[in-house]
Design goal:
150 residues; 6 helices; 44% helix
């Protein structure tokens, strides 16, 4: 006996399980492809830890006006220290120079906490294969580099 044919007017049954390749994903939901314009809190805390471990080191060697000396010694990261830290990323010199240009607000020649945090974030993005922003770092990034309540 032959199985009954489905009626031509009824839709065919579709299998309930669709098998997908294990490595397929949508680019819009993949963490590396989500467009962010802020620094995640966990990343900011990690960058601040690196800043705290390196702030003030060699800062006494910079020729600074006396009124800036106290803040600079306590809060600044010397450019040689920044070059050593960022150089470990093995990003190209051009990329690292561009990151420095973007974050050294006012051309002081040293980086404060917010500037260092944003610079570390840009280096991390460079390691993900992203280029430095052409028009500068957005206000959302600078805002997310600030401590809440501080």
């Amino acid at each position: 006996m032959r199985p009954a044919r489905p009626s031509p007017g009824l839709p065919k049954e579709k299998p309930s399980l669709k098998l997908k390749h294990a490595h397929k994903h949508s680019l819009s939901t993949h963490p590396l492809h989500v467009s962010t314009s802020t620094i995640a809190e966990k990343d900011r805390k990690r960058y601040e830890g690196v800043w705290a471990a390196n702030r003030g080191y060699l800062m006494h060697t910079l020729a600074l006006p006396p009124d800036e000396m106290a803040e600079t010694l306590a809060e600044g990261v010397h450019p040689l220290v920044v070059r050593e830290l960022w150089g470990r990323s093995r990003l190209g010199r051009e990329m690292l120079a561009e990151v420095w240009r973007l974050v050294d607000r006012g051309g002081k020649g040293w980086l404060g906490r917010e500037e260092f945090v944003v610079g570390m974030w840009l280096v991390d993005r460079g390691l993900e294969g992203r280029k430095a922003p052409m028009g500068g770092v957005g206000g959302g990034v600078w805002g997310s580099a600030r401590r809440l309540g501080g």
